[in-house]
Amino acid sequence: MNMILISRYRQELMGLAMLMVVFHHLAIHGMNDFLGFLHLNGGFGVDVFLLLSGMGLYYSTRQGLELGKYFQKRVIRIFPLYFAITAVTSVLHGDSFVTWLLKATTIGSWTTGVSYDWYIPCIVALYALFPIFHKLTYGRTHGTAVGLAVSVLMYMFMQFLPYGSNFQLWLRWPIFFLGATLGRWMFCDEMRDGGVRPRS
Asked: Rounded to two decimals, what is the model's pTM?
């Protein structure tokens, strides 16, 4: 697998993943077998997107992670637009201010179950947990092994969730951190090429 090529064309791959998800949600009837297969499995675009997001996020923090700047960038990227979208839909649905606030901040998704969608709460939680993952793996000799162990253990834990859990959310967490591990692997390759070694 050529990780440099994946990194170089990450935006294009993420765009393709988004198109897969959009196609998956289209209500189209009478498709042939090939298009029907793509339509049925288009949800895997979410997995591709999260894998690439984790990879890109780790690679973007290869020089280190400043928590203040890190969280500021994510908040600005996500919440202004998300606040606006949830405000419009809350007005259309006649939601109270508290209900809108629970949706807009994604707090409701983890507490009362009030949520606009599952994806934004998922990615916000992953962004919030990423600095811990970064601390465990960054610059360490066995950081890639630690990253793989975190991903595998997380996946194993998900298997014990009770029936009725939001599996489309939970089972995406290991994929994101596997992507972050791939990003870490790319970073170490770059360090070796430059003659630098990660600390133990």
From this structure: 0.82
